Amino acid sequence: MFTVQPRREDHGTNFSCRSELDLRSQGLELFQNTSAPRKLQTYVLPSTDPHLEAPRVVEVGSRWPVKCTLDGLFPAWDAEVYLVLGDQKLKSNTMYNGDSVLAEAWLEENEEGTHSLKCSVNLGEKDRRTRSNVTIYSFPVPTLTLSPPEVSEWTTVTVECVTRDGAVVTLNGVSAEPPGPRAQLKLNVSADDHGSNFSCSAALKIAGQVVHKNQTRELHVLYGPRLDQRDCLGNWTWQEGSEQTLKCEARGNPIPKLNCSRKGDGASLPIGDLRPVKREVAGTYLCRATSTRGGVTREVVLNVLHGQNILDIVIPVVAVVLILGALGTAGYIYNYQRKIQIYELQKARKAQEEAALKLHAQSTPP
């Protein structure tokens, strides 16, 4: 019997035992026997525990990755890694890199509660283990209701958000008072509220972490047709031959039907692209928007500038400018002459006063 200090490079070395019995001196032969070979297994297992990466909280039915790693192994490729959730062994994929081993698995559980997640790395006759707790929870999205979901303008709608006990809701950014699983608000709606979104956020603290669930709803407000300046400008003046886009659209819920006809001949207003603008589309149009909620009428004007009507506009304008210029010039000349006359009168009066003073001084005896 002898003792060997194994080294890493001895891993996998075959050993065998050979015995001999020499009886040739007694007239017999040399007897030899060799044992079956044995392979030397050399292992290095660090004193540190594996590193386990896993979420602390997982929602029922969702899938999350789990990783377990350990460095400093020899030979790493002989290591076996096991991931176990509760008493269920997870199907994992093991990878080796140098003296490291990595096992990956997907965590999926449909039963609520706190479960123990364990990772075990076995090498030779020894192992290293680590564990952590994973909380499986169920937290449905909050229930957000608009009552009624479709309302007429200037009526009251109730918005309510409800979630499970233990959670706290926030409705449109405002927390429930007192904090709890239910929040409500009432508002008198107008046409401007049509299409508004209401949001409800529910927060639940699980195993020291806060998880959120959100819900949104859109409000539909029924209101009659609108046809104001922001929907239909109502007065367009364009140059003939230019390229323009005429926009005229009525608002309302339900969407109103718009009909615009020209006074006199009933021609339709050319809504859309005008490429090019023609003088034939000019005129005054009567637009009417109607729906099941009522109707509204508005008069609009489309002017098209062309050669003749430009002269019709320019000539009077030039004439007015010339007249105003002439009046201004005449007024200036009049004021100038008037100022000269006043100056001459003041000058003559001053001369008379000086002459009178001089005569008075001469007639006074010494």
UniProtKB/TrEMBL annotation:
InterPro entries: ICAM1_3_5_D2, ICAM_VCAM, Ig-like_dom, Ig-like_dom_sf, Ig-like_fold, Ig_sub. The keyword Transmembrane helix applies. GO terms for molecular function: integrin binding. Keywords: Membrane, Transmembrane, Transmembrane helix. The keyword Transmembrane applies. The chain crosses the membrane at residues 313-334. GO terms for biological process: cell adhesion. One of its GO terms (cellular component) is plasma membrane. It holds the Pfam family ICAM1_3_5_D2. Residues 225-303 form the Ig-like domain. PANTHER family: INTERCELLULAR ADHESION MOLECULE, INTERCELLULAR ADHESION MOLECULE 1. This is ICAM1. It comes from Cervus elaphus hippelaphus (European red deer). The lineage of its organism: Eukaryota, Metazoa, Chordata, Craniata, Vertebrata.
